[in-house]
């Protein structure tokens, strides 16, 4: 593993840093895990996305021919480091940039690429992911939403759930069953659905944090043009897996970085305890040091993953390990903050007298989400057990 960056990577860093120094005042506050989805938050994010787009700083991993920057793996790392350093969030505008765009680049026909990619880049169309259903989550291939052919259209009926951002979405990439007789992985098709079509109903779900980040979505006789089929009919599982691969490879989201541990230390230094502060207690310092060590171990695991990529090797077990350990670390940190806060931990987000505006209790509630999405942590345990440790299937 070589920890040095090349002169080209450093030049790239300088270019980005200069741009960020000049423009970071336009950025909204970095997105917390399971951010509050108020309309204002959304508008702020659209504004920041458009600013980044003007500068050519969105979709950095897309090929240049589709409007991306075609950055190398290391430059993507530099990009994340510089965004962190500037204290701004990486642009997040639904699942267009991270999931649908790369999937369409791989599977879409030219007409679909020309129609959809530019509007994802410019932030003019916002996408949501219609995968999970009330009876199909971990067992995604059990999905029941039906699409039946009718002339130049598919007619869609069914229900999705936990659809993040559907309340803002213009479009949805939707998994539907097009052959109910075929084995379950073989009768699925991948459709691009206009969320403004007649027959689409979005019902927000209020989470334990009070935020309305995701939704139930109902489809009742929704007509979807056949030209919106990605890949071939009944072959949608392969397309869906490509999207999931992009989701999992980027699912460091929700993990705890050094910034979070720094803030926990900072909290301990402010909380009165036994005539001093919590930080004076060596057991508190030791616990925070433990979190720091775990986060460093994850950092080097991420580098190992990167090294494999740079050497052109297939993805290893690091992805599952990172997803599992980083989301659990984030949860442990939030729970420990509750212990430190004592009775103050009961004050909710935004309450009067809540320390740090109640962000710690918000995080404690929100930190469960990342242990569930992009493959639950129990499923990651299964993958590590079976594919890494070679244990027999349960
Ligand atoms: C914050 C958040 C955002 C989300 N956004 C979206 C979105 O935008 N679009 C979308 O389609 N979905 C979204 N989801 C849904 C997510 O993909 C599902 O919640 C996830 O796949 C789990 O499915 P489930 O909730 O149906 O739970 P289930 O699959 O029913 O699992 C229930 C429990 O059983 C365990 N379990 C299930 N199977 C096994 C097994 N084989 N071995 C061991 N344990 C098992 C699970 O780990 C879990 O603890 C989101 C979820 C969250 C939390």
SSE order, one letter for each helix or strand: HHHHHEEEEEEEEHHEEHHHH
Rg to the nearest angstrom?
22 Å
Give the neighbour order of strands across the main sheet: 1-4-5-8
Task: Please estimate the helix content.
Answer: 40-55%
Measured between the Cα atoms of the first and last residue, the distance is 36 Å
Query: pLDDT under 50 segments (min length 5)?
Result: none
Strand content: 5-15%
Q: How would a crystallographer describe the biggest sheet?
A: 4 strands, mixed
What count of helical segments does DSSP give? 11
- Content-based structural category: alpha+beta
Can you tell me the overall shape? globular
Bound molecules: flavin-adenine dinucleotide
Mean pLDDT over the residues: 90
Q: Give the strand tally.
A: 10
Quick structural gist:
The chain is of the alpha+beta class and 394 residues long.
What is the secondary structure topology, with strand pairs?
Elements: H1 7-23, H2 39-55, H3 73-86, H4 96-107, H5 110-122, E1 127-130, E2 146-150, E3 153-164, E4 171-177, E5 188-194, E6 200-205, E7 214-225, E8 229-230, H6 236-249, H7 258-270, E9 272-273, E10 276-277, H8 282-310, H9 318-341, H10 359-366, H11 377-388
Parallel strand pairs: 1-4
Antiparallel strand pairs: 2-3, 3-7, 4-5, 5-8, 6-7, 9-10
The protein binds flavin-adenine dinucleotide.
Flavin-adenine dinucleotide is lined by residues 34, 128-132, 137-138, 162-164, 214, 369, 372-373, 376, 378-379, 382.
Description:
The structure is a single chain. A hairpin with a 2-residue loop joins β9 and β10. With 394 residues, this protein is an alpha+beta fold. The mean pLDDT is 90. It contains 11 helices and 10 strands. The chain has a 4-stranded mixed beta sheet with strand order 1-4-5-8. It has a 4-stranded antiparallel beta sheet with strand order 2-3-7-6, with no helix packed on it. The chain is globular, with a radius of gyration of 22 Å. The structure holds flavin-adenine dinucleotide. Residues 34, 128-132, 137-138, 162-164, 214, 369, 372-373, 376, 378-379, 382 line the site of flavin-adenine dinucleotide (FAD).
């Amino acid at each position: 593993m070589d920890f040095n960056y090349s002169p080209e990577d450093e030049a790239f860093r300088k270019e980005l840093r200069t741009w960020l120094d000049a423009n970071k005042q336009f950025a909204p506050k970095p997105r917390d895990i399971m951010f509050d989805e108020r309309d204002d938050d959304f508008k702020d994010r659209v504004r920041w996305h458009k600013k980044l787009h003007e500068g050519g700083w969105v979709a950095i991993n897309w090929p240049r021919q589709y409007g991306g920057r075609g950055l190398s793996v290391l430059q993507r790392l530099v990009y994340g480091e510089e965004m962190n350093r500037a204290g701004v969030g990486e642009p997040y505008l639904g699942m267009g940039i991270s999931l649908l765009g790369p999937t369409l680049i791989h599977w879409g026909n030219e007409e679909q690429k020309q129609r959809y990619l530019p509007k994802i880049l410019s932030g003019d169309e916002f996408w949501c992911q219609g995968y999970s259903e009330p009876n199909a989550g971990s067992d995604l291939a059990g999905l029941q939403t039906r699409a039946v052919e009718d002339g130049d259209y598919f007619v869609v009926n069914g229900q999705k759930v936990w659809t993040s951002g559907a309340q803002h979405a213009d479009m949805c990439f939707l998994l539907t069953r097009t052959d109910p007789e075929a084995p379950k992985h073989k009768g699925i098709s991948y459709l691009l659905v206009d969320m403004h079509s007649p027959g689409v109903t979005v019902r927000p779900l209020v989470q334990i944090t009070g935020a309305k980040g995701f939704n139930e979505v109902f489809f009742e006789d929704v007509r979807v043009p056949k030209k919106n089929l990605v890949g071939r009919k009944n072959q949608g599982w392969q397309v869906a897996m490509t999207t999931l691969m992009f989701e999992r490879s980027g699912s460091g989201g929700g993990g705890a970085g050094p910034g979070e541990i720094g803030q926990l230390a900072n909290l301990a230094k402010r909380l009165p305890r036994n005539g001093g502060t919590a930080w004076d207690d060596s057991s508190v310092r030791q616990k925070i040091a433990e979190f720091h060590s775990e986060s460093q171990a994850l950092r080097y695991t991420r580098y190992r993953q990167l090294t494999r990529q740079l050497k052109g090797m297939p993805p290893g077990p690091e992805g599952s390990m990172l997803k599992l350990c980083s989301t659990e670390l984030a949860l442990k940190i939030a729970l420990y903050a509750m212990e430190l806060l004592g009775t103050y931990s009961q004050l909710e987000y935004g309450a009067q007298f809540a320390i740090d505006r109640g962000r710690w209790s918000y995080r404690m509630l929100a930190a469960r989400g990342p242990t569930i999405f992009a493959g639950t942590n129990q499923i990651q345990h299964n993958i590590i057990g079976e594919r890494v440790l070679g244990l027999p299937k349960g």
